[in-house]
Specification:
Organism: Pseudotamlana agarivorans
Radius of gyration: 17 Å
Protein name: Acyl-CoA thioesterase
Number of strands: 5
Shape: globular
CATH class: Alpha Beta
Strand content: 25-35%
Bound molecules: coenzyme A
Number of helices: 3
CATH topology: Thiol Ester Dehydrase, Chain A
Largest sheet: 5 strands, antiparallel
């Protein structure tokens, strides 16, 4: 399997915030944003692996800024690292100023997807070769995040989490 660049999985979804998608403060409902991010990230993981993909975990979500009713929201997803069958996908969320068109970063998230066959069994994915400084930074930290996610899910023993132990040495 040939290695791929993050750019090949880049997925951009732009949509409005409508009244049915808001909370009582007239800002975007958190669950709606999670769903939009999941969709964009799933397409990104599928573009990288060219396989059926399933969400294995939501590793991190930061709702740093409220997204007001009527906003134009852009969700941008890219695979940040591929392991054997799993892929970490980084999602950046932007809102666009109506008058100037300037984009402001509102939120970000990190999801993990697993490529599977038609029976749901995990299958191998191509390697990812980061290119830009930001892609290299996200790639380097991804193993630590994978170990943390597995640890929290009870799928890894603390003594096997080498990257996390190294943080405290
Ligand atoms: C995701 C799923 C395929 C993993 O199955 P599994 O039996 O744990 O398979 P494995 O142990 O072989 O793990 C497969 C990969 O997923 C990774 N993984 C599993 N759980 C993970 C977690 N919580 N966080 C990070 N990575 C995880 C493993 O590390 C492994 O990665 P690697 O092959 O790249 O090293 C399985 O749990 C599943 O089908 N879950 C339901 C998915 C779904 O329906 N999602 C939508 C929810 S509504």
């Amino acid at each position: 399997m040939n290695a791929k660049a993050p750019q090949e999985s880049r997925t951009i979804m732009t949509d409005l915030v409508l009244p049915s998608e808001t909370n009582p403060l007239n800002n975007l409902f958190g669950g709606e944003l999670l769903a939009r991010m999941d969709r964009a990230a799933a397409i990104s993981a599928r573009r990288h692996s060219r396989r059926i993909v399933v969400t294995a975990s939501v590793n991190h979500v930061a709702f740093n800024s409220a997204v007001p009713l009527g906003s134009v929201v852009t969700v941008e997803a890219k695979v940040s690292r591929a392991f054997r069958t799993s892929m970490e996908v980084f999602i950046d969320v932007w809102i666009e100023d109506r008058e100037s068109g300037a984009r402001t970063k509102a939120n970000e998230a990190i999801y993990t997807f697993v490529a599977v066959d038609e029976t749901g069994r995990p299958v191998a994915v191509p390697e990812l070769l980061p290119e830009t400084d930001l892609e290299k930074e996200r790639f380097a930290a991804a193993l630590r995040r994978k170990q943390l996610s597995l640890l929290l899910a009870g799928k890894m023993k603390p003594q096997d989490a080498t990257e996390l132990k190294a943080l405290f040495e």
